[in-house]
């Protein structure tokens, strides 16, 4: 009997696509379905600790100065990249080319004015300071008024 690979991952309520895209990795016969559902998705890792939110994105084969754009608006960080196909390759290619994009919601208390990004060995790292007082969500009661 074959072994089943088990992967313990935290729940990610912000995006359905990364988990759906990863589903196809376990079934090689379904790999062709991955293209329409998530081939142009930037894969990420993220963490929140020590007063900072860090996002690492896989972006191999791009020039970050020319091909990558990072924006933040209303608490949403967006990474856009483009990888151009090189025409000198004549054989089979499973590389993804074209435009890629990924948006993630920043945590509460994120300091959008002090975001830093760096690129090394195909990995884009975005670091966002998080103000601790604001990062802790507080619950507020909303009074209900009777209709007149």
UniProtKB/TrEMBL annotation:
<protein>
    <recommendedName>
        <fullName>SHSP domain-containing protein</fullName>
    </recommendedName>
</protein>
<comment type="similarity">
    <text>Belongs to the small heat shock protein (HSP20) family.</text>
</comment>
<dbReference type="InterPro" id="IPR002068">
    <property type="entry name" value="A-crystallin/Hsp20_dom"/>
</dbReference>
<dbReference type="Pfam" id="PF00011">
    <property type="entry name" value="HSP20"/>
</dbReference>
<dbReference type="InterPro" id="IPR031107">
    <property type="entry name" value="Small_HSP"/>
</dbReference>
<feature type="domain" description="SHSP">
    <location>
        <begin position="32"/>
        <end position="147"/>
    </location>
</feature>
<dbReference type="InterPro" id="IPR008978">
    <property type="entry name" value="HSP20-like_chaperone"/>
</dbReference>
